[in-house]
Design brief:
Blueprint lengths: L1 E6 L5 H9 L4 E7 L23 H12 L4 E5 L9 H10 L2 E4 L4 H14 L3 E6 L5 E7 L6 H13 L24 H21 L9 E5 L13 E4 L8 H7 L4 H17 L1
Parallel strand pairs: 1-2, 1-4, 2-3, 4-5
Antiparallel strand pairs: 5-6, 6-7, 7-8
Bound molecules: zinc ion.
Length: 272
């Protein structure tokens, strides 16, 4: 009997939610998703064209209940960062067993990380790279590296070695190339990996050790980015000694201190 707290039921998040909720261990879901299902979503989404115009959160709930009528589903049709909804979001996170982040922007990922660490919850994150050339799955546990550590490590050492290469570590970011949409097949591969890692983490909790903290699977060969297609890279990313977010967490600190550290980290990312 497990409670999943998930953000995002887009083309990447919805298949993850679908796959993990087929598992009978999942008994409750809280889904944060404010968006309306749009015509341009249809070719990459599980929902039918006839559902255009409806809230993705409502469609997701119907989808899950059609398959698992006993599943307890709570939807929050708001942005994860919406100030007025933080109390109800914090309550749901506090009651959750695992978090699933399928957010498409950096601010939401950092905020998800903050919520999970504040409540001591394990969580997972899936990221499909621009154009569907590959994708990441990351998992996080209390006391381990935070999202800031991971994003900083990957940005520095893994992905963007060539100055002119688009920043594939920031899907949805300000660089024009990162807005190339991925196809449904690539999204499905990464969603499947994300679901497997989430269920593994849920089953084994603090004993979970798949041999990586971040897994990158390439799906295409891309000049100056990936030498080979279908190659897994297993990253064991440590907690960064100078991480502003984790460091603030390491000593007893107020929520205000954490918020300051988060703002500084976001500002630093924005300046790079
Ligand atoms: Zn950190």
């Amino acid at each position: 009997m497990a409670h999943v707290f998930q953000v995002g039921a887009g083309s990447g998040g919805m298949p993850v939610l679908d796959m993990i909720c087929r598992d009978s261990r999942i008994s409750r879901v809280t889904l944060v998703e404010p968006d309306v299902y749009k015509p341009h979503n249809v070719d990459r989404h599980l929902f039918p064209r006839s559902a255009v115009g409806e809230l993705k959160a409502v469609l997701a709930e119907d989808w899950l209940k059609d398959r698992r009528p006993e599943l307890q589903v709570e939807t929050l049709t708001c942005d994860l960062l919406e100030p007025a909804k933080q109390a109800i979001i914090e309550k749901a996170v506090g009651e959750a067993d695992v978090g699933v982040c399928a957010a498409d922007n950096e601010a939401a990922k950092f905020h998800f990380d903050l919520l999970m660490r504040r409540h001591g919850k394990p969580w997972t994150l899936g990221e499909v790279l621009s154009g569907g050339i590959g994708g990441f799955v990351h998992w996080f546990v209390p006391g381990g590296p935070c999202y800031g550590c991971v994003a900083s490590h990957l940005k520095r050492e893994a992905m963007v070695e060539k100055p002119k290469a688009p920043d594939y570590s920031q899907p949805g970011g300000p660089v024009e190339e990162t807005t190339v949409p991925a196809g449904k097949a690539s999204i499905g591969v990464v969603a499947g990996l994300h679901a497997v890692v989430t269920l593994g983490l849920l089953a084994e909790k603090e004993k979970y050790q798949p041999g990586f903290t971040s897994l990158l699977l390439t799906l295409q060969r891309v000049e100056q980015v990936f030498d080979e297609a279908f190659r897994p890279y297993r990253f064991r990313i440590p907690r960064l000694a100078d991480c502003l977010i984790c460091r603030a967490e390491a000593t007893p600190s107020s929520v205000g201190d954490l918020d300051v550290a988060l703002a500084q980290a976001l500002a630093r990312l924005g300046n790079e």
